[in-house]
Amino acid sequence: MTLRCILYTKYRLYNLLRMARPPLRISASDLKRIEQAISEVEENGGMIRRSFESYYDDDFDVGWEVDAAVDAFSIFSSKWTIEILATLYIAGDRRFNEMRALLRGISSRTLSDKLTTCVQNGLVDRVVEDGPPIRVIYRLTGHGREAGRLLSPLVAYMKLHQGHVVGPK
User: Fold this and answer.
1) Mind listing the pLDDT tens digit for each residue in 118-136?
2) Structural domain tally of the chain?
3) Which of 14, 39, 100, 165 is the most exposed place for a label (fewest CB within 10 A)?
């Protein structure tokens, strides 16, 4: 059994639950392809970093670089934002209560606040369908889908690192 961390709980002793399923066992060839794709992302990240660095003279401002990185990630640093993005990326368009059921541990108020923030930041669209009853569906925008695609290699890396996905015995 794999332990699952429930993020952002205030009770440390209760934030570990057993995952319902054992690790996903994949073929050696698929594992190799995934590891190669992660390696390519790492190489591309290095190339991007070197490209940015090439625009500096001798006065590299590490403070500005850190501030720019923190600002770029500020939308994702809020609790539940990445979880909402991942849920919509993996599960597709969802109604509020469907998302709440998938995001175990989130309150209705928090989900509502975080969805509003995601809409304001252009990651999620709130689509109101005429009724009766009126239905509200949340879906990723193009920007949200692209962010989800860019986060996928990181998620894959973490699944492998945490033992949620393993190769053959």
Assistant:
1) 999 999 999 998 878 899 9
2) 1
3) 14
